[in-house]
Amino acid sequence: MLIMNSIHWTYQSCNYVSYRMNRCVNMIARLFNAPLGDTETAMGVGTVGSSEAIMLAGLAFKRNWQNKRKAEGKTYDKPNIVTGANVQVCWEKFARYFEVELKEIKLSEGYYVMDPEKAVDMVDENTICVAAILGSTLTGEFEDVKRLNDLLVKKNDATGWNTPIHVDAASGGFIAPFIYPELEWDFRLPLVKSINVSGHKYGLVYAGIGWVVWRTQHDLPDELIFHINYLGADQPTFTLNFSKGSSQIIAQYYQLIRLGFEGYKNVMENCRENMLVLKEGIEKTERFNIVSKDVGVPLVAFSLKGQSFHSEFEISEMLRRFGWIVPAYTMPADAEHITVLRVVIREDFSRTLAERLVADSLKVLHELDTLPSKISRKMGAEDFGNVKGKKVKREKLMEVIVGWRKFVKDRKKMNGVC
């Protein structure tokens, strides 16, 4: 009802909506421990998801870095940003669209997040910020922002660079404050200058809403903020998309007011409990390795054990017959040989559904055991076991995975064709 009643408004066209957006920004900033007094107003804005939020945060970092370099009489034409290879594609978009070099920390088998030590080693005088992920898209794991902050403080003291941190909390921003309150990842750390979070993930709102908040007003250059008055009053605006709908902002405000801290805490605790139920069920099959961590976004990422003659892509495809959409994907650079299945636990994913998914997965595994192996067709069971060298194994396995992807894609194209 709230969404439908406000669907014809843009958020800039109505002071009522702008007021509600500012209320949301203040609640979220305080949730992230922004250093605000009782009467201070937080600096932030609602966006069309975390992609726009990251673009805006990145622009603020770039402009602050440029202004600092200009004041020092130094060159300012080669900015870079340090991230892990596990970042979401919006970081690559920011780097390409706004001409910033993206310096990625490669992953390794068993360690699928950014290594703080390696990240700090890659920081130089042209680094506008280091981006840490609170809830990796691949495994849900929280990166160690506290360790990153401590290492970067030491490097800043030694070099005088004052390189800051942005936390991409698209997935974890509405999780960590409620079930991991002791975890230091937010504005409690002095180098964290901005944080983004998605309202349409664990903020419990429909798609199309994100938020970015800054530590203080000084962290967002005033020259990036525009002021308009043709809608009846002076309104500051810092967005990439002016004509944003108001319905998701109203919905976010409603959820924050209706649920409150205890309500969100109950929802997130329930998600975590159902995640543990699913994880335990998958482990009991004795056919999978769990890749995800218990502390993080409530999801289960898992891969087949050993040298299975079937792939995670086959499991993903066959689970669709039972109504499940469980994505299978390969890891990024330097861990491409690892293939993973992932199940994200949302507020409507119950214990019953977790148990049903495990049961359906067992049916798929039993059926696959009776089918010819995609790998054995390619190289033969004996050859597979006798291949020499890890690199050769990876190359062969990647050939099979690519072939299976093509098979599935071609099969989808033929669906419904007589």
Lay out the secondary structure.
Layout lengths: L1 H4 L9 H17 L11 E5 L1 H23 L8 E5 L4 H9 L3 E5 L10 H7 L4 E7 L11 H15 L5 E4 L7 H4 L12 E7 L11 E5 L11 E3 L6 E3 L9 H38 L3 E3 L8 E6 L7 H8 L8 E3 L8 E6 L6 H19 L4 H6 L1 H6 L3 H25 L4
Parallel strand pairs: 2-3, 2-4, 4-5, 5-6
Antiparallel strand pairs: 1-7, 6-7, 8-9, 10-11, 11-13, 12-13
How does this structure look, described?
This protein is an alpha/beta fold. It folds into 2 domains: 2-262, Type I PLP-dependent aspartate aminotransferase-like (Major domain) (Aspartate Aminotransferase, domain 2), CATH 3.40.640.10; 272-414, Aspartate Aminotransferase, domain 1 (Alpha-Beta Complex). 43% of the residues lie in helices and 15% in strands. The protein is built from 13 helices and 13 strands. It has helices at residues 2-5, 15-31, 49-71, 89-97, 116-122, 145-159, 176-179, 247-284, 312-319, 351-369, 374-379, 381-386, 390-414; strands at residues 43-47, 80-84, 101-105, 127-133, 165-168, 192-198, 210-214, 226-228, 235-237, 288-290, 299-304, 328-330, 339-344. The strands form 3 sheets. A 7-stranded mixed β-sheet has the order 1-7-6-5-4-2-3, with helices on both faces. Helix 9 (312-319) packs across helix 10 (351-369). It starts with a helix and ends with a helix.
Corresponding CATH architecture of the largest domain? 3-Layer(aba) Sandwich
CATH fold topology of the largest domain: Aspartate Aminotransferase, domain 2
What is the count of β-strands?
13
Q: Report mean pLDDT, rounded to a whole number.
A: 88
